[in-house]
Amino acid sequence: MFTKILIANRGEIACRIIKTAKAMGIATVAVYSETDRNALHEQLADESVAIGPSPSNESYLVSNKLIQAALDTGAQAIHPGYGFLSENAEFCRLCAANNLVFIGPPVEAILAMGSKSAAKTIMADAGVPLVPGYHGDDQNPEIIKQAANNMGYPVLLKAAAGGGGKGMRAVYAEGEFDEALGAAKREALNSFNDDIMLVEKYLLKPRHVEIQVFCDSHGNAVYLFERDCSVQRRHQKVIEEAPAPGMTDTLRQQMGEAAIKAALAINYEGAGTVEFLLDAQGEFFFMEMNTRLQVEHPVTEMISGQDLVEWQLRVASGEPLPCSQEQLTINGHAFEARIYAEDPDHDFLPVTGRLTVLQPPRESAHVRVDTGVVEGDEVSIYYDPMIAKLIVWDTDRDRALQRLTQALSEYRIGGLTTNIGFLYNLAISQAFQNGDVDTGYIEEHEAEIFRQRDRDIDYAAPLAAAAIFKLREQQAQIQASPFNGAQFTLASVQ
User: Fold this and answer.
1) Does the annotation count 292 as an active-site position?
2) Is pLDDT larger for residue 80 or for residue 473?
3) Catalytic residue among 16, 292, 397, 412
4) CATH superfamily, domain at 207-453
């Protein structure tokens, strides 16, 4: 096992990794940019290294700086977290060239899944179900259009190198195709410097269900059940849950075994997520594989009782998987809600500012808060505006959902706009309560989710009271300070 690792990331995922490493007796090295000096992850680590200016392309995305920090501190391995360089094959290669273990899959697996088009071909050869579509090399617009006509509308245009909804367009009729293809290609070129497109049958009211897989270097592979990530906005996940509502044991096993097929087809090692679309008839189709730990991994940890970061560290150090498939069981139900500094009333625009009040709900066996900030910190323009992940667990879905709404109602954040009111309204919407979700849920229930301003007022009133109380408390401390008068005199002299 490693004695020291460097974490090539920041924020809540860096703090999350540090927590497990400390529990395992592994020393940690944090890296930080100018903005992140004195950030929580930098303070929690045993050592920290400055890596440059605030923009990520001058700090967290500069491979050589991270490698040098690891070498200078004597780290044996690098954990990339998620985002940044976590799925960067060249960074993985650079780690190996410097005798550093990359805590993730082999470079070949990253490359295999890096292109949606190539991944589809590999999965087809492995017998993993695919959505009908065209994934060919011939990018003649007429060829792509003919494929769309053959499979029937609606279809979905997707950038082969894409992610996060960029370069993606739904097309509902042949007459819309040419304009949609042109727009998708332009967006893909701007986002990824690559405008290769694929086209697939667009499933109506699909669910986004993903399987957590784990493989080691000894030929073992397991799946740690599924997560339902259907509730999204602009293809970004909002609330995730595990297990998926309405999932049967038979379907779970079928999807799990298909996910393992996908992982073994690319000689995978470590934590990975195989994402599927699940239709109303119970048919599922491979979408993509994420070759890293997912943001939503805590819900899997809550229902399985396993620490997935610990699994990553053990597998990366050459140990076999901690459990066999038969030893893994599901216990209860969990939700994760992503708390963001953003304005739901203005198209979810990111918000910056200081967290003048930050009072999360009390953590317990039922409530977990993964965060990388404390009260007084600033949400900057440079990074993703996630404040925290709120994770709840209970013995069944209804009880877990009650825990979620209660915890959201107790969350107090002041100083900037957040999505907490939006998340609360979403969680109490009737169809969500019933588990009737699909990838178009927010758009379909927009009126219900956004209408409940009385709920927002119920949330905002105690928050305002907390902010006023804190301000008066700070003023009282200043007045009571024995240096207050001296400071005033000095100021007046100056």
Assistant:
1) yes
2) 80
3) 292
4) ATP-grasp fold, B domain (3.30.470.20)
